[in-house]
Each structure stands twice: as structure tokens, then as C-alpha cells.
Design a protein that fits this description.
The structure is a single chain. Helix content is 69%, strand content 4%. The chain is mainly alpha-helical. The chain has a domain of 176 residues. A two-stranded antiparallel ribbon has the order 1-2. It is globular and about 70 Å long.
């Protein structure tokens, strides 16, 4: 449970352009490093700030939703990559032979964590950058882009919300996705995703038609609220830009990244400490700034 209302936090009051830059950098960083230790650092840091800004219940519900996708990625990655040694387990049945490859398992875990990081970032973005802020940021570039970005982010939020509602409704029909064998559960979840995607896309198109009918995206619109830059915005921007530049330098020097699945033979690679410290610091910068801001104002 949050001690500070979300609208009173430093992160929510941050200038929309600065917040957009931070989220853009964070999204890029979630795709720059594919080592297990670095990915774990990123997801733990994101979980901490999501608990602070979204609350424990919302963060936990989101983690459960992301967990389904995580295990699906690990499962299919292990199933499709069986040629890399060493092997943790091997079983043969008739013409079918399954080998549990250790590199494939580590690679699947990393890919699953990276996807989870991306979804957690968008969940936080939907809370911090409201529709008005997104339109303020993107409308000067092109009004239609502002409309498209707003609808896209709302689609992700509605997707997560409706998935939770579908799970509850299915339980009333004695269709529990947490029981049964793994193939049975996957079949149930995939059928739910089909329903969910069709419903969310239909809802998004309806919203787009309504907004288009009211003039959104046709021309630049005025804003009821004027956002002004404060010194704290510039300090935050300098901190995030410096950390982002250091992380790019680390990535260019081949730290935290492996090109081949066959090379995934350990959780902690040589040189992983630098991207781990920098990525954790970058992700937690909003909380650090939060503490400094409230100490300064009080």
C-alpha cells in the first residue's frame, strides 16, 4: 500500500517530456542486455518501483499475468532449442527425444524476464503518463501520432484488466487455468488470449472512431493545463542521461550481452557487475529522486 498518493509523488509531477524520455530510455535498456544476472537486476528494480507507485496488490496481479507469458516463453524456447550441451535431462519415447538443454533454459529465462520487464515498464508508464500528458508530448509532432500512442497504451492497460476479469469469469464456469496438466492449461490460456485480443482490438477501434468523431488527431488541440519545466526536472534529466550514456558505453564494450544461445552456460558472466549496478541505479532513479525531493521540500 502506498504511503504517498500517486499524484503527490515527484515522479507523477515530473514534466511529461522528461518522463517520456526516461521511459524511452528504460524501454531501450530492457532490450540491451540479455545476461540472466543483469535481467534479474532489472526486473527486481522494476518490481520495487512498481510496488511503490502502483501498490502491492496491483504489482502482484501484474506479476501473475506476466508469469503466464514468462513460462510460455521458457517452455517453447526449451522445446525448440535442444542441440546445445550440457543437458540437464533427457527422455526418449518412441520416435520422440526430448533434451533439456541448460543454455536453452537460461536463454529462455532471460527472454521471459526481458518481456516481463517490458510489460512492467508499460504498466508504470500508463500510471505516470496519463492520456493528457501523452497528447501534450506527441501532439506538437503530429496529432495523429498522439492519438495512436494514447490508444496503444490504453490497449495494454485494458488487456491486463480484461484478462483478470476473464480468469474470474472462467472460474464461475469451472474452467480453472491453474489446474490440470501443462498442455491443458496452455490450451485454456491460449483460448482466453484469443477472446481477449479480439475484444480489446474491438474496444480500441471503437475508442478510435469516437475520438476521431470528436476531432482528435485532426489538428493540434489546446490544453487545459500548461506544463512548465522546473529545476528538478533538469536535474533528473541530467542524471538519467548520464546513466543511460554509461550503460550504452558498457553495452558497446560487449558487457551484458551474448550473441549465441550456446554461450549461455552461466548465470553470472565476467563483467556483468558493471551493467548490473548501472541498470539498477538507473531504474531506481525515480525512487532516489523521490527521497531527495521530499527531504528538500520538508
Amino acid at each position: 500500500m502506498r504511503q504517498i498518493p500517486i499524484k503527490m509523488t515527484f515522479f507523477f509531477q515530473l514534466h511529461p517530456i522528461i518522463a517520456t524520455i526516461f521511459f524511452g530510455e528504460l524501454i531501450v535498456l530492457t532490450m540491451l542486455f540479455n545476461h540472466v544476472a543483469v535481467a534479474l537486476t532489472g526486473i527486481v528494480s522494476l518490481m520495487i518501483i512498481n510496488v511503490f507507485y502502483l501498490g502491492r496488490h496491483a504489482a502482484w496481479q501484474q506479476l501473475k499475468f506476466n508469469g503466464v507469458l514468462f513460462f510460455m516463453i521458457v517452455f517453447f524456447n526449451v522445446l525448440l532449442n535442444q542441440k546445445f550441451s550440457p543437458f540437464l535431462w533427457k527422455v526418449s519415447t518412441g520416435f520422440f527425444t526430448f533434451k533439456l538443454s541448460y543454455p536453452a533454459l537460461l536463454y529462455g529465462i532471460t527472454m521471459g524476464i526481458m518481456l516481463t520487464e517490458m510489460l512492467m515498464t508499460f504498466a508504470l508508464l500508463n500510471t505516470i503518463l496519463t492520456a493528457n500528458k501523452l497528447i501534450y508530448v506527441f501532439a506538437p509532432i503530429t496529432p495523429k501520432l498522439a492519438l495512436l500512442v494514447t490508444i496503444s497504451f490504453n490497449l495494454v492497460r485494458d488487456l491486463i484488466k480484461r484478462f483478470g476479469q476473464l480468469l474470474l469469469l472462467q472460474k464461475t464456469r469451472n474452467l480453472d487455468t491453474t489446474t490440470g496438466s501443462l498442455p491443458t492449461r496452455l490450451k485454456k490460456i491460449l483460448s482466453l488470449f484469443q477472446i481477449l485480443l479480439e475484444d480489446s482490438l474491438s474496444s480500441a477501434m471503437e475508442t478510435a472512431n469516437l475520438m476521431d468523431a470528436r476531432g482528435f488527431g485532426a489538428a493540434k488541440r489546446t490544453h487545459y493545463r500548461s506544463y512548465r519545466f522546473n529545476p528538478t526536472d533538469w536535474f533528473f534529466l541530467m542524471g538519467t542521461t548520464a546513466a543511460f550514456a554509461l550503460l550504452l558505453f558498457v553495452r558497446i564494450n560487449a558487457m551484458g550481452w551474448t550473441n549465441s544461445v550456446a554461450d549461455f552456460n552461466t548465470i553470472l558472466f565476467t563483467g556483468d557487475l558493471y551493467p548490473m549496478v548501472l541498470l539498477g541505479s538507473f531504474t531506481l532513479l525515480p525512487l532516489i529522486a523521490e527521497g531527495v525531493y521530499h527531504l528538500w521540500t520538508n
